[in-house]
Every structure is written in structure tokens, then in C-alpha cells.
């Protein structure tokens, strides 16, 4: 069952009582609109419609010659990596209050949103993207007058980095995480798999630090890999999974998480596992 919502639209070209009548008739003829009232004094319309009716109402007003005033928003979207991400962001933006149309560009990591004035606000659009797992900021020169358009995270004196600068910084950040993870994982690999390459390695570990100490050391190093450089797989993957829209982060989080939990049981509570 679709829930009806009430919107307040700002209209153009209203000049007389006849205009009010024609605008109301146009709105009431739009699919999904159950109630419509037009106010000449403040040039607005109050409509009650289901989620699909707002765009139809806007189109009906345009055709009747009383277009609703709109805002064109340009957003920077973070965290997108594939076509599925584009679909999720676009769906979330389109469902935000007052949004008439939304288009997402993966290559430019951006979104164009058409918002009906009075029916929604910029912060609700940004929140919709954020709740979907893709933080958004309003590009400079937004409709609310400031450099951030009232919806960004910076201030008037802070220049927003370009897309190439953001990409370069992201690459540097990923490189640092990769090297850190490799430095922690290499000892684990040597301790666990070294005996397959170096004869006598297994005996050497047993005679030096002992196998139980080796296992504890591997547990500590592996935990650091998962929860420091690998943390983002879990902070992104599980929320996406719980929203019913799993992505590659979800796949990595599930796979590594299952292996990690099994290994914890095998190390600290082996009696819980079948003898075979």
C-alpha cells in the first residue's frame, strides 16, 4: 500500500482566480493526486499524492502553463564503485521528499537532482544518499547561496578538492593500507605456510617460540589486518548487506569474517568442533 504525502509547491505565472482554477484542475487530473489546493496570494499549491504522483503533478502544471519552481542540485557522491552502486544511489535520491528526477554518473562520481521548491530540501536529499551508504556533498555554487549551497561540509574559505585530487588522495590512502596489511600478513604467511617451502621450518618454530605461541601471534596479527586496514570492508559491507543490497565489500566481509570466526573457535575452543 502506497502512503500518501502532502507537498507544498511554489508555482509560476499565477495572476488571477482563473489561473488558480486551471492550475487546480491540472493537478487533480494528474495520476496519484488525491487532493489539490492552489493559493494565489503566495503562489503555491498544496497537494496530497502518493510517491509516484509528484512527478506527474509537476508535468501537469508544466503542461497547463503554471510550472512549479525547481532547484537543480549537483552532488558529489562518495563510495561508488560499480553500476549497482549507481542504481542504489539513484533509487535513494529519487525517493527523497520533493525529488522530481535524479541521475547518477559513476565516472564523475556525481549526481544531478531536480528538486521541487517547497516540497523538499537539500539536507533531506543529502541524508537519503548518506543513509544508502554513499555520503554526498553539495557542489560549490549550490542553490542556497553559499559556496557549499548550504549542504556541504566545508566553509566559505575552504576550497573543495577537485575530483583528480580526491582520486589521488584515495589512491595514496589505499596504498598505505595495502602496505600496512602486507607487513602484518607476511609473518602470518611465513609462520603458517613456511614449512611448505622451507624444509625444517615446522620443527624450527616448535623448538624456538613453540607452536601455541605461533598460533597466538598469528591470531593477533590477523586481527590487526582485519580491523585496521581491512576495517572498511566491514563498515561498508555489513550495512549494505543489512539494507538488502550487498556489494563486493559485503562478499569480502562475509568470507573473511566466517574464516576468522572459525579460526577463533579452532584456536580457543577446539572442543566445540567435530573431531573429524
Automatic annotation (TrEMBL):
Region annotation Disordered: where it falls in the sequence? 136-169
InterPro entries registered for this protein in UniProt = Heavy-metal-associated_CS, HMA_dom, HMA_dom_sf
Q: Where are the transmembrane segments?
A: 179-201, 213-230, 251-273
One Gene Ontology cellular component annotation? Answer: membrane
Alphabetized UniProt keyword annotations: Membrane, Metal-binding, Translocase, Transmembrane, Transmembrane helix
Gene Ontology molecular function: any one: P-type divalent copper transporter activity
- Record-annotated HMA domain positions: 5-69, 71-137
What are the BP-aspect GO terms? copper ion homeostasis
- Compositionally biased residues, Gly residues: 142-154
PANTHER family listed in its UniProt record: ATP7, ISOFORM B (PTHR43520), P-TYPE CU(+) TRANSPORTER (PTHR43520:SF8)
* Name of this chain's protein: Heavy metal translocating P-type ATPase
